[in-house]
Amino acid sequence: MRSSGRNSSGRGNYRGAGNKRDEKQQRSGRPRPEERRYDVGGSEGGDERRGGKSGARGAAARGGAKGGPRTGAARSGGPGGKGGQQQRGRGQAPARPREYDAKIEERNRARYDKPQVKTPKTFPGAEQEGERLQKVLARAGMGSRRACEELIDQARVEVNGKIVMEQGLRVDPEKDEIKVDGLTVATQSYLFFALNKPAGVVSTMEDPDGRQCLGDYVTNRETRLFHVGRLDTETEGIILLTNHGELAHRLTHPRYGVTKTYLAAIQGPLPRDLGKRLKDGIPLEDGYARADHFRVVENTGKNYLVEVTLHEGRKHIVRRMLAEAGFPVDKLVRTHFGPIALGDQKSGWLRRMTNTEVGMLMREVGL
């Protein structure tokens, strides 16, 4: 006996009642793919074969959110449940209004379009702009970065008067004052040189008469340098060159009293009270000139080599003092400028000053 073309659930069975796939579809209560219909137009009174689930699928096709409220058919339990059987035969559930879908879309946009939250920086000093302290110290010649980190761990580094204990501090080499063991560290932006000026060299960076001058020793430097103080043309010895204007000003200002030491070759014999006379003051045409220290370094017959230390910087001051005392100078060499010594530096040689020397100079004038 032929079976009717429709089963008990109202769906067509073109393969016969004994088909296992058709029985499985009956048990699940779902239509086969070729029988499914989707409502995208929102028409009322849809086909009876459209269950509550197909109505909900139609609402989603119209633009509803995946997680939004379910329609009446979906709330009733779907086509497989009791509610689905009740809905079947009474028409499609009414579609939700477009205004509601617009609100859902607006809510989703607000959820996923939130402004990016900036997380706070976690290491000390990160809010500052600049370079890491150990990098600045390494570039200034204080050692490798690892060695500079050890200096920080040993509490030997201070920035703006405060000892630095933590790693990662950022500093501005142009503005921050950095010291190691109490001495200021020279950053890369400043240059400091010591020149052993030979006799016959003019203490200017340029000479309109074409004479040999200090500028001839730094012609390959991109940064403009200037000399700290002067030396007589015939006087030899140490003279400083830098581009640190404030340091140069303080080193030559009488207020800070930076001492200079000279070796002078004179002819004797010398009276015992010569040192006392120089310290008490020698009257010159522009006022008294006083030495801070005097001693005899070497004596060979009538030839004497004496050392004179003073903090004044007037023109030809040492030559004028000794000549006024009755002992004209044959040769004059400046051996110290403040704490910086000439040492065994050869005549005409230019050397870059060490960070220790720069730190001592800055401490001398309160920088």
Question: Helix fraction?
Answer: 25-40%
Q: Treating each run of at least 4 consecutive H or I residues as one helix, how many helices?
A: 11
The gross shape turns out to be elongated
Distance from N terminus to C terminus (CA atoms, Å) equals: 115 Å
Strand fraction equals: 15-25%
* Rg, alpha carbons: 48 Å
For the sheet with most strands, the description reads:
9 strands, mixed
Spans with pLDDT under 50 lasting ≥5 residues?
1-17, 41-69, 71-89, 119-127
The total beta strand count reads 17
The overall pLDDT, averaged over residues, is 74
Order of SSEs: HHHHHEHHEEEEEEEEHEHEEEEHEEEH
Question: What is the SS-derived class?
Answer: alpha+beta
Note down, in words, how this protein is organized.
About 25% of the residues are buried. α6 packs across α7 (about 145-155). By secondary structure, this protein is α+β, with helices and mostly antiparallel strands. It has 11 helices and 17 strands. The model is unreliable at about 1-15, about 40-70, about 70-90 and about 120-125 (pLDDT under 50). The strands form 4 sheets. Strands 7, 8, 9, 10, 13, 14, 15, 16 and 17 form a 9-stranded mixed beta sheet that branches. The chain has a 4-stranded antiparallel beta sheet with strand order 3-2-5-6. It has helices spanning about 20-30, 50-60, 70-75, 80-85, 100-110, 135-140, 145-155, 245-250, 275-280, 315-325, 355-365; strands at about 130, 155-160, 160-165, 170, 180, 185, 190-195, 225-230, 235-240, 260-265, 280-285, 285-290, 295-300, 305-310, 330-335, 340, 350.
